[in-house]
Design goal:
This protein is an all-alpha fold. The protein has three helices and no strands. It is about 85% helix and about 0% strand. Helix 1 runs antiparallel to helix 2. It is rod-shaped, with a radius of gyration of 32 Å.
């Protein structure tokens, strides 16, 4: 999405600049439009490449940040105190096992 947006934006910007420059120097309409359309396609391609690169950088940063957050929560979960089993707990589990067996 970013790549297409960047490509379209740069292409339209280049077309506008080429047309305004052609009108300013009083070139014929056919020359002005042909240069404008050429600039549009060239800068659209450049914008697509730059937009794709920017999207990749954002995706990699997002993935790195996500893995850092997951690692932090995993470390916090491993640092939590473990549950201790008391004699009451072991007796109640035996009773539950007996009830399940019946």
């Amino acid at each position: 999405m970013v790549a297409r947006f960047a490509g379209a934006s740069l292409g339209l910007f280049a077309f506008t600049v080429a047309v305004i420059a052609g009108i300013y120097v009083q070139n014929p309409v056919s020359v002005t439009l042909s240069r404008g359309i050429s600039a549009l396609f060239i800068f659209c391609g450049i914008g697509l490449v730059l937009g794709a690169a920017a999207q990749r950088v954002v995706d990699e940063h997002e993935h790195k940040r996500e893995s850092e957050i997951l690692d932090k929560y995993r470390d916090d979960a491993n640092d939590s105190p473990e549950l201790e089993v008391t004699e009451e707990d072991s007796e109640s589990s035996e009773v539950n096992e007996v009830q399940l067996a019946d």
